[in-house]
Please model this.
Amino acid sequence: MLTFNPGWDQNANTLETFGDARVLKEKFREAGIEIKAAVEKAKQEPTHFMIDDPAGNLIFIDQHV
Model:
């Protein structure tokens, strides 16, 4: 599984700007990519979702900020 944390750098320091996971999730949906285990929370709360890459590997998008 690959994990991406929008809003953090490689040392878990908060970034000033980043692509919000909710926006990324909608872009994936619009592209026809199945969203797995999505948490539908209000904006500004932590959220996460998962997708499969074309090779079948699981990708976890986990936003804490």
Notes: The chain has one helix and three strands. Strands lie at 2-4, 47-52, 58-63. The chain has a mean pLDDT of 88.
